[in-house]
Amino acid sequence: MKPRSSRLRLPVSGILLATLLAACATPEPPRTQPPAPVESRMPGSVRPPATAPAAAPVPLPAPSPAAPGGVLQPLPAPGLPPAAPAPFTGPQGQALVQQLLPPVVTKDRAGWAADIAAAFTALGLPPSAENYCAAIAVIEQESTFQADPAVPGLSKIVWREIEARRAKYLIPRVALDTALARPSPGGRSYRQRIDALRTEREMSELFGDMIDELPAGKLLLSGYNPVRTGGPMQVSVAFAEEHARARPYPLPARATLRDAVFTRRGGLYFGIAHLLDYPAPYRDPLYRFADFNAGHYSSRNAAFQQAVARLSGRTLALDGDLLNYAGGTPAATASNTQRAVLGLSRRLGLSREEIQAGLRQEKDESFYRTQVYRRVFALADAAAGRPLPREAVPRIDLKSPKIRSRITTGWFAERVKMRYGHCMDRAALARSL
């Protein structure tokens, strides 16, 4: 079973310490005017404006035409009245979202409702109570409706990792202390900023300043930033970048997609896209919530792994990844699931090349239509004498410096589904009034 985290990872590399130590040789006086936040970015990017993107609403792209048959399957609400047949649009949708928000949202309910409704419009998603409640449940679970949620003990996590790296690389404590005493943009030392860290956005800005301001920082740390998720839905920066390649997101001048993720409007847009902007015919919203944590189609793929395990007699990790990956691309080394399916080649009536081509579609909707998917389930259903489940919650332990107890994808999905049920109760009440 692969450990996985749905939030940030905070490794502090030896490169970082080397960069800090290099800073000791050429100290600069503190600045009187703090510059704008700095984010990790690709070569050729520029510094964001002095005014943070959150200060002004970010215009969202126009809705795109829905895919044939709709963008996604409606989320069911067992035991509750069906949603209103006519979709909500404009002020109606915003008013409904405001009614569906949980009691915990005591500040700027209208603003939250407006940004949620705007994301649905921009993405071309069906504005139903079920879909609104799905997004609301994830927001409540991930941040309790905080645009930039605080991380308890963030500075302790960073200091613990820095000390471990210092000891590993035999760096004298006095040298490290001198480096961290260097003034950063705004006048505070890097030590003071680490001690005061509260949110992931602050952590991201800190690393951005280290990249841009410390000697050799751009060369040694370019592209490295330990904060990989952010905003009210804790959406991945990598997902935002991938989604924006297919559907460009309008950014303010000199801002980055990383900046947008840390704003309420941008974080909701990309978080709702990750949750709902892909077709998955799940019978229960539980599996879509699991996918939000583990990755698109992880619940479908975990069920496929169950079927393969039954046919092959092998014990497989039901983690939703059918292939091994390195840097986001399939690795040369075959995974246990891959080897198990290849071992069924003769029974499936498929060549190794056909199996490999099918498995490479595991992250896409098209995997449903591959011969390897269809034939595995045909054999497994026949062997079991009944249709086997086509979805299963991936069995993944979540790992992060922030997590002190055992938390799994299943735990996350069940918690979100509970909040979804509460929201649908509010929807039923609103329809009865």
TrEMBL record:
Pfam families: DUF1615 (PF07759)
Entry keyword annotation includes Transferase: no
Taxonomic lineage from the root: Bacteria, Pseudomonadati, Pseudomonadota, Betaproteobacteria, Rhodocyclales
Transmembrane annotation, as ranges: none
Keyword terms of this UniProt record: Signal
Protein name: DUF1615 domain-containing protein
Organism: Thauera sinica
InterPro entries from the UniProt entry: DUF1615
Keyword Phosphoprotein: no
Signal peptide as annotated in the record: 1-25
Pro residues composition bias: residue spans: 27-37, 56-66, 75-85
Positions of the UniProt region annotated as Disordered: 25-91
